[in-house]
Amino acid sequence: MTLAGLDRRFGTDVAVLAPAISHSDQVRAVFGGFPAAVVALCGTVGGAPYGMIATSLAVGVSFDPPMALFSVRNDSSTWPVLKRAGRIGVSVLSEGQAVACRQLAAKDADRFAGLDTHATLHGSLFLRDASSWMDCEIAGELPAGDHTVVTFRIHQVGHGPGTPLLYHDGRFPRMRHEHLS
Ligand SMILES: Cc1cc2nc3c(=O)[nH]c(=O)nc-3n(C[C@H](O)[C@H](O)[C@H](O)COP(=O)(O)O)c2cc1C
Description:
By secondary structure, the protein is an alpha+beta fold. The chain folds into two domains: 1-34, no CATH class; 36-167, Pnp Oxidase, Chain A. The chain has four helices and eleven strands, in the order ααβββββαβαβββββ. The protein has a seven-stranded antiparallel beta sheet with strand order 3-2-6-9-10-5-4. It binds flavin mononucleotide.
């Protein structure tokens, strides 16, 4: 459903809130309408690359030490393997990487075909041309409904010139900067 559809079906007034029922159109519309950065979480296990896409990553969870978190589906088949990489490479995708996003989220495909990657000795795997990078170690896991919240200790960071890829309402909108003053 588009946000225009949300306006028509549920109203735009805060006085007409709907109960947050699991899998309801209302909850889907609000979660889908929450703007998010797109990241790839990648690592090597036994010499093979593993990776997945997430929009649930949050940074600034802690500044001292630097920490991030993301939420992974409990039925993910990739995460139980990927988490065995010593470190997880988090690449914040850039605007030119929408195709890489779809490929790394695909179920039955070679997720890394044609992608330009950089592996570290620690087991993390990064995508070149991303807008920034974080080399992460899993710090903890917290159950959260049908997902698990994974906390990361960030060991190394890098920042490229690219503009981050955003995800909103099933699309990739372009970022437009406006200055505060
Ligand atoms: C835009 C987008 C955002 C996603 N965000 C998440 C996420 O935050 N957490 C998650 O577990 N899966 C997320 N996924 C799904 C995974 O990237 C991937 O499709 C899924 O893990 C594939 O299933 P598998 O883990 O069984 O291989 C997202 C997919 C897309 C396309």
